[in-house]
Amino acid sequence: MKKLLLLLILSFFSIQSFAAGCPDGSEPVKSISADGTYFVFECGGSSNKIDFQIINLTDFEDSYFTDKADYASSKMINTITKNLVLIYPLGDFLSVTQNDEMDFLGSVHVSHERIIDDSQIKQTLQTVKKFLANKSCIDARGKNDLLNNIEWVLKNGFYSGLQAPLCRDVRFVMMSVSPEQRKDNNKELLRVFFHEIYHSLQNDLRNNCSGPNDLWVIEAAAEYFAKHSVSIFDNSQQDYVQSIFHWAVQNASRHGFKLEDPGVAEKGLGALRLKIEEGWLDESRILNGSLFHNCARVKEFQDNDPKIQYLKDNWFKIEKHNGTYRFNTSMTEADVKINF
User: Fold this and answer.
1) Is residue 209 part of a domain?
2) At which of 171, 201, 231 does a domain end?
3) Half-sphere exposure (CA, 13 Å, Cβ side) for 38?
4) What is the tally of structural domains in the chain?
């Protein structure tokens, strides 16, 4: 097993991202901290820090995850979060249980053979407790509940892929890695990691900022970033936009035309892409996270806006022409069902 904890601190100016360089046009300088435990990227003097602590219990090299967290962070602007990411392996699939009530994992529990031992779980909980110790925005009960939930998930070998906004600027990501996902160059592992890391970098998830379309906008944006990022890391020959269309069509066929669960993230991909193609949303605002600054996603996705109603009425009107997906908003719902 890899060392339990790697602290990765990525530093950026509050105005520009790592990818864009420093304000003076130079590239950020990468250095190692005095104690040798983390990397620092700096432009000149003061900086705005993005903190990732990653607990990696899998056989993947730490760099597999830290490189991608580095990449995701470099695309964001004005990010404020401190993040703890827990990644753990699962054994063979055992069963699926559907529950009437929601809990830490939602209403569906997918159990696998547990392959991490009690000592690893104990050490993991100690690390999480240390991370939470100085987070005054979380009360003692909240910290204890999180620790109990983590222990419950790990001891039962449950699947997880979640991000919890513990505070406005403190986030927790927990994701499992199945035997299938442990195969080389697994796109699904990349997709889930980028999806959850994007959530951890979204600014306004816990600051009294809420609107009627929050669920599909927040989830679809994370999925959009994940699709875009996987196409880069995987050197995929498939256009990520075509992948977005494919997922939207597939979930419209399976789960209907309303922007709601099940499949809300995938269906929302169609709505976000339609807004981009209509010229009502700059794609860069999804990819750099600025759609989630200053409650922009609430202000711009109101039900009384005719453009939002247009998205809801037309996001699923996608046809395949000469092997390529494209929007055709002149289609009726009957046409769409035939097209499926």
Assistant:
1) no
2) 201
3) 17
4) 2
